[in-house]
Design brief:
By secondary structure, the protein is an alpha+beta fold. The protein is about 20% helix and about 35% strand. It contains 3 helices and 10 strands; from the N terminus they run βαβββαβαβββββ. The longest helix has 13 residues. About 25% of the residues are buried.
């Protein structure tokens, strides 16, 4: 199978949670998973495999970031929100991958735009079944040869 644009990799799995502290207690305190990066009260990133992080983020912020009109999902879907993130090496690649997603039958949820949080370019699309993806170029993101993810300024 030939992959143009989206290699077979998932870098982030972000779970939209209604209670960040409860989610942190479950994954970090309960399961013993080690956070790679935490912004207290805002977001928790956990290294789950080489080149892959699990993100825990507030459901309403996840919805707003993906361009959802109504903010938080209905109460019956709290905790079920999720965005799969594909991180690329350049801003041009963000635009190209979003275009390929549309060509393949996806729908743009949020066109490519500068992120106020990390300074790179990102956009969101939904696949035909409605699963949401973020495509992003984060200038402060790097992956070592062994797959270990680093967030923050490149040394």
């Amino acid at each position: 199978m030939h992959n143009r644009g989206m290699e077979q990799r998932i870098n982030f799995i972000t779970l939209g949670v209604p209670d960040l502290e409860a989610a942190r207690r479950f994954y970090v305190d309960g399961l013993g998973w080690e956070p790679t990066l935490e912004v207290e009260g805002e977001v928790v990133f956990i290294q789950v495999s080489p080149g892959q992080l699990l993100g825990l983020w507030w459901a309403d912020k996840l919805e707003a970031d993906a361009g959802a009109a109504g903010g938080a999902p209905p109460e019956e879907y709290r905790g079920a929100g999720m965005v799969l993130s594909h991180n690329v090496d350049s801003e041009e690649e963000v635009v190209r991958v979003l275009e390929e997603a549309v060509t393949a039958g996806g729908t743009i949820l949020k066109p490519a735009e500068r992120s106020p949080d990390f300074g790179g370019l990102h956009g969101h699309f939904a696949d035909p079944a409605g699963f949401r993806w973020e495509v992003a170029h984060n200038p402060g993101w790097r992956v070592d040869a062994d797959g270990r993810v680093h967030l923050g300024p490149v040394p």
